[in-house]
Specification:
Length: 362
């Protein structure tokens, strides 16, 4: 009888049990992380993410950077790259390394012709997300004079559109001042509340970092169980593949109707000239490149295959994507600072040549 009374008075709320359990699991994971000296990064592994006034990462906390780029796109001399982490990160980063978008802005031809070259990038950006960003740019009255799009077969495996992309126009457009004022007020209050919570509960800052490492390590565990290696063949996912191709075509049809210039390129790929060394099914990859080119030419855009532009020795290694192995692996996505320099030189020639022949002039 006495036990039942105590049980009644000392009943612990379920949400508290869940919170405490989650906290214990994360603290245990953190200690295991320290024991095994696991230094997982934000999905880039050995590559360093870049975000600056030229090459802007689409991320909520980069609000100022994003708004400045949108303002710059108002010019009839604006050039916008859309990209994924290849655009926005440098492998085996060294001091004074610059990304290719920043390097293009320093180019003498760009300066002489007063070109405003900018970029929006985000990790694993799909063609569907590029299409949504393009739609938002139109609604934001920030449609660039020249749009440059990379087409990665790898990212056609992504079928969803992230909330940050879905909410792009509502978060960053200046068309409706009243909505902006409301948004700024709401965001301002949320930022203040978030800051206050983090000051009072310091462990929450650590939980966010742990969550990033935890997701990366789940990815490594999957690779270990399924024996996935960097050079493992990644077959296309048919449903997401065709969905991304349709989104890509939608961008080009829209730009063509507006008589705006578009460049599409097959991005650099490590070992692109070596048979059976790339992580794609050869037949599928050839078919993908052919389809991308056909759609581009059909809609009066300029197509370039740049897969072999960055030489093999200019690519870096990455930390292991396997939870057991610790040695570095080859990285098929990210190249070094010298690789970015090489790509900037190629784009400089492309832009210069086509400006001089009037095919890119606004």
């Amino acid at each position: 009888m006495k036990y039942k009374i105590l049980k009644h008075y000392f009943k612990i709320p379920e949400f508290l049990i869940i919170l405490v359990t989650a906290f214990i699991v994360l603290i245990t994971y953190k200690n295991l992380n320290l024991i095994f000296k696991n230094d997982s990064k934000d999905g880039f592994l050995n590559a360093t993410a870049i975000s600056n006034k030229f090459n802007c990462r689409l991320k909520a906390k980069n609000k100022s950077c994003i708004k400045n780029v949108l303002k710059d796109l108002d010019s009839d001399r604006s050039v916008l790259f859309l990209g994924n982490s290849q655009t926005g990160s440098i492998n085996n980063f060294h001091n004074k390394d610059l990304d290719f978008v920043s390097l293009l802005n320093e180019n003498s031809f760009s300066k002489k012709n007063k070109l405003i070259i900018r970029s929006f990038w985000m990790p694993n950006a799909s063609l569907k997300e590029f299409s949504k960003i393009h739609d938002s740019l139109i609604k934001c009255s920030a449609n660039p004079a020249i749009l440059i799009i990379p087409t990665f077969l790898d990212d056609t495996r992504e079928n969803s559109i992230r909330k940050s992309v879905q909410n792009f126009e509502n978060s960053f457009c200046n068309n409706e001042k009243l909505n902006n004022q409301k948004t700024d007020l709401i965001e301002g209050n949320l930022v203040k509340l978030n800051r206050e919570i983090r000051i009072r509960f310091e462990f929450l800052n650590k939980l966010q970092n742990l969550n990033t490492r935890f997701r990366t390590d789940l990815y490594k565990i999957r690779n270990f169980i399924l024996m996935i290696k960097p050079n493992s063949i990644r077959k296309i996912k048919r449903s997401s593949y065709f969905s991304n191709i349709r989104a890509y075509e939608k961008i080009l049809v829209s730009r063509n109707k507006q008589n705006l210039k578009t460049i599409v390129y097959i991005p650099p790929l490590l070992y692109s000239n070596k048979i059976n060394k790339i992580p794609y099914n050869t037949k599928e990859y050839k078919s993908f490149k052919k389809k991308i080119k056909e759609i581009c030419l059909k809609n009066n855009c300029l197509f370039f295959n740049l897969e072999s532009v960055v030489e093999d020795e200019l690519w870096g290694n990455k930390l292991s994507t396997n939870i057991i192995k610790s040695e570095n692996e080859i990285d098929f996505m990210h190249f070094t600072g010298k690789g970015h320099l090489r790509l900037s030189e190629e784009f400089s020639l492309i832009i210069k040549n086509h400006f001089e022949t009037n095919s890119l002039k606004p």
